[in-house]
Amino acid sequence: MANIDIKEMIGAGVHFGHLTRKWNPNMAPYVYSERNGVHIIDLYKTIAKMEESAAALKKIAASGRRVLFVSTKEQAKEIIVKNAEGVNMPYITERWMGGMLTNFQTIRRAVKKMSNIDRMKQDGSFDALSKREKLQINRQRTKLEKNLGSIADMTRLPGAVIVVDVKKEHIAVAEANKLNIPIFAMVDTNSDPRPINYVIPSNDDATKSIDKVLTYLTEAIAEGLAERKASKEKKVSEKSKEEKPVEKTETKVETKSADNKKK
Fold first, then answer.
1. Alpha helices (H) along the chain
2. Residue 252 counted as domain residue
3. Stretch 17-37: mean pLDDT
4. Which of 18, 111, 132, 215 is 20 to 30 A from 226, alpha carbon to alpha carbon?
5. Range of the domain at 219
6. pLDDT tier, 188 (very low <50, low <70, confident <90, very high otherwise)
7. Are 161 and 53 in contact (CB under 8 A)?
């Protein structure tokens, strides 16, 4: 993982917290100072936490578990999609449906319903329906795609959740905590860091700040996936060598006997 440049962090505004009157006292360990009524985050602590989080995410990705990206705030949506899709991970950028983690089997049924609709369109049975039925099914499919499209292929609970703005995504945080799923989150000075396993004190409102932090974490996930791929290829190669038949070579040994030697 590349070193984090503190000047780039400052340029992205990662250090800007909220107004001092809106702060959460539990964020005190991460506050460096106050400037014009705004809390300034200690970027050295932010960098340390980013490196710690990246190392943990790299291990999770290398183990084959998936990482769910979550943020429904407008300024984070495009960044979430770009980073999650870049490493083929699921993401939620629309409404968080209650029970998405704690009632995962129900969510899987909804995904199955979406797949059934697609199957109907492929096998021709959809064409036999009335216009009204087609319209209803298409609306249902669009709604499911909007809420579940990115997690359609998530067959089991994620190994970790990355969250931007823990106040806004408090339901996702609560569900992940209930299931002991590690939470990696950008936590601003107005939020409570206590429910978060890996706190990254940072500005969770500015687009550049969000992009800076998430890109770094995503690069760590990519490294973990690359390690997993290399490990698999090595095992396949070693197995192939073991199964390769050993060629037998026959050696002729000439024996000379003085008794049988003809002169």
1. 6-11, 43-62, 74-86, 104-123, 131-148, 170-178, 207-243
2. no
3. 95
4. 111
5. 6-98+157-233
6. very high
7. no
